[in-house]
Amino acid sequence: MTEIRTRFAPSPTGFLHIGGARTALFNYLFARRHGGRFILRIEDSDRERSTDQFTEAILEGLAWLGLDFDEGPFFQSHRSAYYRTQIDKMLGSGSAYWCFCSAEELDGKRKMAQAQGRAGSYDRNCRDLRRTPGEGEAAVIRLRMPLDGSTVVHDLIRGDIVFDNRELDDLVVVRSDGTPTFHLVNVADDIDMGITHILRGEDHITNTPRQIQIFRALGAKPPLYGHMPLIVGKDRARLSKRHGATSVLAYREAGFLPEATLNYLARLGWSHGDQEIFSRAELVSAFDAAAINKSAAAFDMEKFAWVNFEHMKSKSANELTRAVRPYLAERGCGGYDERYLETAAALVRDRAKTLVELADQLAPFVGDTIAYDQAAAEKFLGEADRARLRGLADELDSLVQWNAPAVEREFRAFCEGEGIKLGALAQPARVALTGGTASAGIFEMCAVFGRARTVARLRAACAEAEAGALTFRAPASPQPGR
Ligand code: GLU
User: Fold this and answer.
1) Are 7 and 70 in contact (CB under 8 A)?
2) Which numbered atom of ligand 1 lies nearest the CA of 207?
């Protein structure tokens, strides 16, 4: 059996977006599923629109998702000499020919064809001229399409799609400035790279019969194609910024796990029974191109967030701690003891659906300063509260044992002495220690903080509040898709 070879062939004219990442994933899964190879090709032949910055962003996005390729990246901009050989081959065999029609002439022909309701716009005027351009003479190279019969795309997802060859123009494969067109380089590279299967967006369907003819013109067997459904928003309109961030890396920034992102991308247009949560290994073993849907897939931010939460839940505290470290480092909280972070993460993990939320929850454990919720500080760090919190800090400082029950006993004893309810002390303490009114259990938090941090934080919060020197939280930054 021949080896299965798939590729991802992005044009670096934008960031790696949801649709592109799904294409990469499906080709990756198909290759891995069948023990084949996955190739990365950067289609940067459009030099005006391609940038190194986008190439870097695509590579970074793939690396984040762990979509490792076996060969490449190959760059089309480095491969002109090879394309030249393929063009010569087509001219030599007569499967392509020079066309000398000017832009104005072609425009006239197009209008005429439209007026007559004819398919195609070029009248094949130069098809049988059999001449090459003279010195300085402008000409393009066109493919000699079959004039009748049909081209069948044996689509892996949609079954056979039949195209009438009379609908296919003699398409331009080399422009008058000598540069090969998208169709030519795309096919020439698929031949050279031995690609056997291509999964790509359904927006390419009309290109496929044309490209199949280029394969034939070059004496090569076309690969098998599968055209994947569009990704739409909940309103069924094509996915766009309106529906949330479309760049994959924006989800990293928002604290999504790469494995959850892969899982959710896989479910966009593909299913396996009613299973929703997949590990990478499960995706590889379950992936089947024939199970890709034909109808559009709806991107649903809430579902994605749920998938992320499920993956967060399945991680050990150690794995979560490792995953959240970069988010803590970004806030200037690095270098914490692994065990300490793990214990803190175990305590607060249920309150976080993303790594950003987990970093928020962990911030009081590792930050040197705390950012306060202004309303909470105003409500709970008034003069009377501060007096109590200072008293509490002194008591805690002399506690013999330091663990959650001991801390709780001290809180309760203190309240009794003051003749107040526990909440009247616990809530100000929570605000002083975490910056806000919602957190994990306060005694458990104190236990993890340790005596020094707890006492110092209570005292610092009182001093800062008194001096009007608290740092307040910035309003929450918008989440993708929210
Ligand atoms: N560069 C093309 C794109 O990004 C590749 C199309 C294909 O996969 O053949 O749409």
Assistant:
1) no
2) 9
183 lines ligand 1 (CB under 6 A): no
Distance CA 156, CA 291 (A): 10
Predicted confidence (pLDDT) at residue 299 exceeds the cutoff of 50: yes
pLDDT at 478 over 60: no
Residues in CB range of 270: below 8 A, 6 or more apart = 26, 287, 291, 292, 293
Show contacts of 395-403: CB within 8 Å, 24+ apart.
Answer: 396/446, 396/451, 396/454, 396/455, 396/458, 397/451, 397/455, 399/451, 402/447, 402/450, 402/451, 403/447
pLDDT value at 11 more than 70: yes
Which residues are within 8 A (CB) of 435 and not within 5 positions of it... i.e. 6 or more apart?
Answer: 363, 364, 370, 371, 372, 373, 376, 377, 473
Express each pLDDT in 343-366 by its tens digit. 999 999 999 999 999 999 999 999
Q: Is the CB of 211 under 6 A from ligand 1?
A: no
pLDDT of 102-150, one tens digit each? 989 988 888 888 888 776 688 899 999 999 999 999 999 999 999 999 9
Q: Does residue 200 line the site of ligand 1, with CB under 6 A?
A: yes
Given a contact cutoff of 8 angstroms between Cβ atoms, the answer to whether 356 and 320 are in contact is no
Q: Which of 241, 294, 313, 421 is catalytic?
A: 241
Is the confidence at residue 267, as pLDDT, over 90? Answer: yes
Q: What is the Cα–Cα distance from 307 to 221, expressed in whole angstroms?
A: 41
Active site residue 421: no
User: What is the 11 CA–ligand 1 centroid distance (Å)?
Assistant: 7
9 lines ligand 1 (CB under 6 A): yes
Q: What is the DSSP letter of 12?
A: S
DSSP, res 14: S
Say whether pLDDT at 482 is over 50: no
- CA angle 390–395–399, rounded 5-degree value: 145
Angle between helices 317-330 and 338-348 (to 10 degrees): 100
Average pLDDT over residues 289-316: 95
243 token code pair: 């529906």
Mean pLDDT of 3-19: 96
Mutation pick for ligand 1 pocket among 5, 7, 8, 11 (CB with most ligand atoms within 8 Å)? 11
pTM: 0.92
Can you tell me the distance from the alpha carbon of 22 to that of 298, in angstroms, rounded to the nearest whole number? 13
What are φ and ψ of residue 227, in 5° steps? -100, 120
DSSP string, 203-240: GGTTHHHHHHHHHHHTT----EEEEEPPEE-TTSSBP-
